[in-house]
């Protein structure tokens, strides 16, 4: 992707909610400063189901919190969410989308003025696909997310298209584990998309 070099300060009042894929972005952002003072409410194995049913919370400011409460505690004006990797195989598409509906409602109940940006889920390295998590399933999920974002008056950001190789999988240079997790190059590509969004 091309970066249009939007200001890193754009993300000073932003939070990112995500799983271990977003955890890599948090490390990259901390090392480079390219996302300003963004808050990362991320945890390995986290899912939108956890966010709704409370079976896993986010550790923030020294305690476990529901994500909507962590957003309020951080005073964030906008939130960028990428979740679903740990939900699709466990719950399937329809239940995962039901969780999304409840999750957005929960966020807005506590943070009524926050701007919500739903990011598409990144692909799997082609050789690492499983029955539960394949790139065709992720493509279908992202299409549902895009429609859902419009329905719920959220913004939608396409990250996945910029991470794919010619086989529709996570580009090898962007993949650290022959599965879904990112290298620094992958985190850099994601950051370029975010910087372009800041410059729009």
Class from helix and strand fractions: alpha/beta
The value of Rg in angstroms is 16 Å
Average pLDDT reading? 97
Q: Which strand order do you get reading across the main beta sheet?
A: 2-1-5-6-7
The assembly state of the depicted protein chains is single chain
Please report the number of helical segments. Answer: 7
Q: How helical, in percent, are the residues?
A: 40-55%
Number of strands: 7
Compressed to H and E, one letter per element, the order equals EHEHEEHEHHEHEH
Largest sheet entry: 5 strands, parallel
What best-fitting shape do the alpha-carbon axes yield?
globular
Topology:
Layout: E1 14-18, H1 20-32, E2 39-42, H2 48-53, E3 58-60, E4 63-65, H3 67-74, E5 78-82, H4 88-91, H5 93-110, E6 115-119, H6 135-151, E7 155-157, H7 184-198
Parallel strand pairs: 1-2, 1-5, 5-6, 6-7
Antiparallel strand pairs: 3-4
Explain this structure to me?
- The protein is of the alpha/beta class and 200 residues long.
- It has helices at residues 20-32, 48-53, 67-74, 88-91, 93-110, 135-151, 184-198, and strands spanning 14-18, 39-42, 58-60, 63-65, 78-82, 115-119, 155-157.
- Strands 2-1-5-6-7 form a five-stranded parallel beta sheet, sandwiched between helices. A two-stranded antiparallel sheet has the order 3-4.
- Strand 3 and strand 4 (63-65) form a beta hairpin.
- Helix 1 packs across helix 7 and helix 3 runs parallel beside helix 5 (93-110).
- The chain is globular, with a radius of gyration of 16 Å.
- It starts with 13 loop residues before the first strand and ends with a helix.
């Amino acid at each position: 992707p091309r970066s249009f070099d939007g200001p890193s300060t754009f993300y000073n009042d932003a939070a990112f909610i995500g799983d271990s894929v977003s955890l890599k972005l948090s490390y990259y952002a901390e090392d480079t400063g390219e996302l300003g003072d963004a808050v990362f409410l991320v945890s390995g194995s986290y899912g939108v189901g956890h966010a709704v049913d409370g079976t896993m919370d986010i550790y923030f400011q020294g305690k476990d919190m529901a994500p909507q409460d962590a957003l309020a505690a951080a005073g964030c004006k906008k939130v960028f969410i990428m979740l679903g990797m740990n939900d699709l195989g466990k719950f399937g598409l329809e239940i995962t989308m039901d969780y999304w509906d409840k999750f957005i409602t929960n966020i807005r109940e506590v943070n009524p003025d926050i701007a919500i940006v739903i990011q598409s889920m990144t692909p799997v390295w082609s050789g690492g696909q499983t029955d539960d998590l394949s790139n065709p399933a992720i493509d279908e999920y992202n299409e549902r997310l895009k429609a859902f974002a419009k329905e719920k008056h959220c913004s939608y950001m396409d990250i996945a298209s910029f991470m794919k190789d010619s086989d529709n999988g996570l580009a090898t240079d962007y993949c650290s584990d022959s599965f879904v997790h990112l290298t620094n190059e992958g985190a850099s590509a994601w950051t370029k998309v975010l910087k372009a969004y800041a410059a729009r």
